[in-house]
Amino acid sequence: MHRRIRTLNAVVFDFDGTLALLNVDFKAMRLDILGLAASYGISDDGLEGLFVLEMIAEIRRRIGRDAPGREGAFADRALQLVTDRELAGAARSALFPGVREMLAELRRRGVKRGILTRNCLEAVTAVFPDIGNFSEAVVTRDDTERVKPHPDHIRTMLRILNEKPARAAMVGDHPMDIRVGKEVGALSVGVLTGYAGASDLQAAGADLILERAADITVCLD
Ligand SMILES: [Mg+2]
To answer: Which of 7, 8, 30, 178 makes an SS bond possible with 188, Cβ 3.0 to 4.6 Å?
Structure first.
């Protein structure tokens, strides 16, 4: 599978589980949000299948419908709870070995690098304080109207990097990373250092699966 598929001018990386140890307690985060929702009289009906940020958007919509005017306070508090969990995770996370070297190698070869995450910038920079030396762009949930798996997120990144999707790779540990890359026509690369195993990444349509993101240099000339 380690064949060179196309010339890559840019590589876009997910962060947690891809460049750094995935340590956010998403289960506890969901319970935080559902508990907050319950205090607004919103049940968890139909929320099971949603990712946390999308779950917050849906609860916000329901509060706006049932108790207009209270949805803003809910959303502010919910995002604070999410951020608290992310920062707690970041405090126990670390970059994977070889990540800085790999990013420096991409830079040396003239390949643009970006980091695309649903996490907040504060948590990312807590784990990777010198990120600005290694990546030209970091696009978090605060920098896009809609986050991945919505393609707006990666389109925002590609606009910043000024690169065509066909010349870019999206590298991530989650099926949503694979899907968002495919959606825009980028090379979708799964890695086995985080959330999903090879079969789930393959099922999502990965063009390539690597043990770890640092191996992405095999895709270069
Ligand atoms: Mg991830």
So the answer is: 178
